Amino acid sequence: MRSPRKAQTIRSASDAVVAFSPAMARDLAQLKEFLFAHVYRHPRVMGVMAGAESVVMDLFERYLSDPETMPEAWGRTAQALDPRRRARLVADFVSGQTDRYAIAEHGRLFAATPELR
Q1: For residue 58, how far is the Cα from the chain centroid?
Q2: Where are the domains of the chain?
Q3: pLDDT in tens, 31-72
Q4: Which of 12, 38, 70, 95 could staple 74 via S-S, CB 3.0–4.6 A?
């Protein structure tokens, strides 16, 4: 496409109008591959993620089976709901927790809490 004169020309283009050069695209792909292997999927990071997932699952299951362990207003509301809506309310409660609060709650409710560092 040569020097488009109207925005509509860009909007209706069937191919990318702006893109990285082939060399830059190759370098970016190599960078992403490196980051996934050595940062995002590093065994230490994956261990922390597994611990965090277990905290969230443990809290969800405990609150679902024992709503009284949630703060009073949440627990009272949860007990009055059918199972599907109770699960939604518990999921909303857990998803609204900060990391620090979730770890503290897990420590309050369970004998052992994973170290997430």
Answers
A1: 16
A2: 48-109
A3: 999 999 999 999 999 999 999 999 999 999 999 999 999 999
A4: 70
